[in-house]
Amino acid sequence: MQIKDYTNAASVREAYEKVLQAQEKLNASISFIDPEEQLQAVPEGKLQYMPIAIKDNFNVKGMVTTAASRILDNYVSQYDATVIEKLRAAGAVMVCKSNLDELAMGGTNLTSFAGAVHNPYDLERISGGSSGGSAVLVACGAVPAALGSDTGDSVRKPASFCGVVGVKPSYGRISRFGLIPYASSLDHVGYFTNNVADAAKMLEVLAGRDDRDMTSSDRPVENYSEAVGKDIKGKKILVFGNVIDALPDSETKALFNKYVKALEEKGAVVKTVHFDPTLMRAILPVYYIIANAEATANHSNLDGINFGHRVEADSADEIMTATRTRGFGPWIKKRFVIGSYALFEENQERIFRKAQKIRRLIVDEVLKELKEADALIAPASGAGAPLIEGQSTDELSDEYLIAENHMVIENFAGLPSMTVPMGLSEGLPVGLNISCNAFREADMFSIAAAVEEISGLKGNVKEDY
Amino acid sequence: MKIEEIKELGRQIRFECSDEEAASIAADFDLLEKQLAFFEEIDTENVEEMVYPFDVETVFLREDVENDVLSREEVLANVSRVREGHVVVPKVVR
């Protein structure tokens, strides 16, 4: 596939027009950024004239930053997030703030106050979330790259559903300063592209120590582009057996098995591993407890007093209650109630601390195998994107608990992890997920490039909008 | 969990839930309790809680130099009611 070249102001203007044009059918943006002011002075850099979409939970100075929540519908950022500064310095040009699940808490992009995002392969289907708008804008060819955030699989799952590349690097690899938080021990900055080479280049721009984010790492930023196209002969790749076992026989499974074979033909040493199934079934509830408990605490500052959409009342206390009642959607209320319940003194040992302990056991279980290998691979989703309306799931099945939610492990462990398109299953895109040891992003990009070579899907977009 | 208990949980973290919202949360609690049953099958004796993916060492001291300072106007730009440089709320002591 031909990769479009973005080398001048005209290509940025064209991207901006496409973002506007795609809005009616896809609803992928929350606000638009006319690029003319940025085009006055575009610095020379690795991303010069690359049009880019920014998930609307990153602060961009002077822009409304809503995080798709009514409570922030009038909040204007007074500073740039570190990643925005880096993108500007590298010559990227922002063209829109993209749609997401409210406060990035969701996996469907159906909970945004701005409405659902639609999948470009089938408008009746979800984009996935929470970074759905960013995934869709890359998938429809409007922009070549988009910023997202990933707390559970919020970049890697929509990447699978939309047929694009989605990257979540190691915890601490990219500064989170200026990202509206969700769950601090799990949040990562991530991004989307339509090819692996661009994904490697993006990380070279975005990574690095930032004194404004104390969890950011001071490890040197590598030349990740060098890893793209590197021979994978001898690389030890683990197939996530529990995920494969939990999937019904399907086109996805058959497709994935083809890739396993093709990677072996390229010289990789592939082995299937199985982890303790009891621990694997606990992945999702552990995530749900930790993420919601941290979110409840992080978002206690959303009260309308110092910022955000205030609802006036007779006392400060009543202002907070009225503001939060109006400001939060039902999904957020649900998650905050559960998070708060887990933090009650009488529940802390049984629920919250127990979840944190099981998190460690899950991580240890996976690292025991991964430390002796280079990567762990699995289908990023069992099938293509679900329908917006009327798709039911058995939420106690292994298919749901393990096959559809295994990518949370890399948030627990802080491992680099990315999704690469592997083709269509029942006519819908599905991706292959590759996870590696901490700060071994180079391994991840070299294996991803091999997968891309097998698929022939470099630069894959669905340009109908 | 009962609807009224859910509503009370909401009030404690400063929001009201409608009957419909509370019923939906109650259904979620039922599912969560079933999923939490997996926890009981896992022995966590002597396991330390994991609160971050891994320790990122931040051991440095810097000079006490002002940086990334927002002006008062910038700080107050998003406040809905401001008077003479202060955030305005209704009287607390009447």
Q: What distinguishing features does this structure have?
A:
heterodimer, A: 465 residues, alpha/beta, Amidase signature (AS) enzymes, eleven-stranded mixed β-sheet, two-stranded antiparallel sheet, 16 helices, 15% strand, globular, B: 94 residues, mainly alpha, 2 strands, 39% helix, flat
Category by helix and strand content of chain B: mainly alpha
Beta-strand segment tally of chain B: 2
The radius of gyration computed from the alpha-carbon positions of chain B, rounded to a whole number of angstroms, is 23 Å
CA gyration radius of chain A, whole angstroms: 21 Å
> Please, what is the average pLDDT of chain B?
91
Q: Helicity of chain A, in percent?
A: 25-40%
Unreliable residue runs of chain A:
none
Mean pLDDT of chain A: 96
Strand content of chain B: under 5%
Oligomeric state: heterodimer
Please write the CATH class name of chain A: Alpha Beta
**Beginning-to-end CA distance, first to last residue of chain A:** 18 Å
Main beta sheet strand tally, sense and closure of chain B:
2 strands, antiparallel
Number of individual domains of chain A: 1
CATH homology-level superfamily of chain A: Amidase signature (AS) domain
Q: Any idea what the CATH architecture of chain A is?
A: Alpha-Beta Complex
**Beta content of chain A:** 15-25%
Account of the 3D structure:
The complex is a heterodimer of chains A (465) and B (94). Chain A is of the alpha/beta class and 465 residues long. Chain A has one domain: Amidase signature (AS) domain (Amidase signature (AS) enzymes, Alpha-Beta Complex). Chain A has helices spanning 9-26, 36-39, 82-89, 132-139, 156-162, 196-206, 241-246, 251-265, 277-281, 283-298, 316-327, 330-343, 345-370, 398-403, 408-413, 441-455; strands at 29-32, 51-55, 93-98, 118-119, 122-126, 145-150, 165-168, 188-193, 236-240, 269-273, 375-379, 417-425, 428-436. In chain A, the strands form 2 sheets. Chain A has an 11-stranded mixed beta sheet, with helices on both faces. Chain A has a two-stranded antiparallel sheet with strand order 4-5. Chain B is built from 3 helices and 2 strands. In chain B, strand 1 (82-83) and strand 2 form a beta hairpin. With 94 residues, chain B is mainly alpha-helical. Chain B starts with a helix and ends in a 7-residue tail after the last strand. Chain B has helices spanning 3-12, 19-40, 72-76; strands at residues 82-83, 86-87. Chains A and B meet through helix 9, helix 10, helix 11, helix 12 and helix 13 of A and helix 1 and helix 2 of B.
